[in-house]
Design a protein that fits this description.
Length: about 325
């Protein structure tokens, strides 16, 4: 598997990102980067980003959690951030991402994990939970989706994606997003970050989101992930998500949704997850006000407090 590694100088003096780099090997000798902050013996919190961001997204969440005594681990998915980037789009699949993430969790020896998932962090992180539920103590799901295109989702989601009479009904904005990721002549995560936040993001912060991708040869991962969405029931992603939802139906440990009020792309999934997961019953599911899809950017410190309250309030 051919891969490239973003030069380290691209990550010098990024705003509000003082964290030392750490690395673990996964897959076929791929190096996976992660942030590892706070006391080693503290309750571990695993922060998972999605498309097209990296651990930089959680820079305002990390210090809130370390102040509460948590050990905070925030990896960059393979193909993103400081992690290695296979150069062929065919090297990326939902199955490979789940496997790489599971191998990372095993390599770092995390147990009793509080997992926080957003965007693609949900399908991938919860996909690992479905395989090894014993490693996870709690979950916070924030602005994520487990697309299956199942007929039962009709009317449940703001951005429709469900089977109907032998066809599939899909929100045009979902397809437009997918199309845009493929048609952009230059792939820039900053375009998506600014487009899906409620606040104005500064130029230096936007540049930090673009830092991992100096040219197109580094972009196979973020280009490929959008086309892997489970928009039809037979897709690999939909079938993986079906298995994940089946596993979540037996997950009795605390499961909290923390969706924002400004993200139509995932609205409705919080209710689906609350209905499916037994551990969601009775939890104080907050709505993060004034935040878009990338709520970590709009309300990072507030999200950190929500996570910390769950850890403090639900001892293992």
């Amino acid at each position: 598997m051919d891969s490239v590694r973003t030069p380290e100088e691209r990550f010098i003096d990024l705003p509000d990102y003082p964290f030392d780099p750490h690395y673990a090997n996964v897959g076929e000798d791929l190096r996976m980067h992660y942030v590892d902050e706070g006391p080693r013996q503290g309750p571990p919190v695993l922060l998972l980003h999605g498309q097209p961001t990296w651990s930089y997204l959680y820079r305002h969440v990390v210090p809130v959690l370390t102040a509460h005594g948590c050990r905070v681990v925030a990896p960059d998915l393979i193909g993103f951030g400081r992690s290695d980037k296979p150069t062929l789009r065919s090297d990326y699949s939902v199955k490979s991402h789940v496997r790489w993430l599971q191998e990372f969790i095993e390599a770092v020896a995390l147990t009793q994990i509080t997992m926080v998932v957003q965007d693609w962090g949900g399908p991938l992180g919860l996909g690992v939970l479905a395989r090894t539920p014993e490693r996870f103590a709690r979950v916070v799901a924030a602005n994520t989706a487990l697309h299956t295109a199942d007929a039962s989702l009709a009317g449940a989601l703001t951005w429709a994606c469900h089977s109907a009479g032998g066809t599939v009904v899909i929100e045009p904005a979902l397809l437009d997003y997918q199309r845009m990721t493929q048609e952009l002549p230059r792939f820039q995560p900053s375009l998506f970050v600014q487009g899906a936040t409620m606040t104005t993001v500064s130029d230096d912060v936007l540049a930090a989101y673009d830092a991992p991708f100096p040219d197109e040869s580094f972009c196979a991962g973020p280009r490929q992930l959008p086309v892997l969405m489970g928009l039809t029931p037979a897709s690999e992603c939909a079938r993986t998500n079906q298995r994940t939802l089946a596993a979540l139906a037996s997950f009795t440990r605390p499961f909290l949704t923390a969706f924002s009020d400004g993200d139509p792309s995932t609205r409705g999934w919080e209710a689906v997850l609350q209905r499916v997961v037994p551990g969601a019953t009775g939890q104080p599911h907050p709505t993060m006000e004034g935040a878009g899809h990338f709520l970590q950017e709009d309300a990072g410190a507030e999200l950190g407090q929500v996570i910390a309250a769950l850890v403090d309030g639900t001892p293992c």
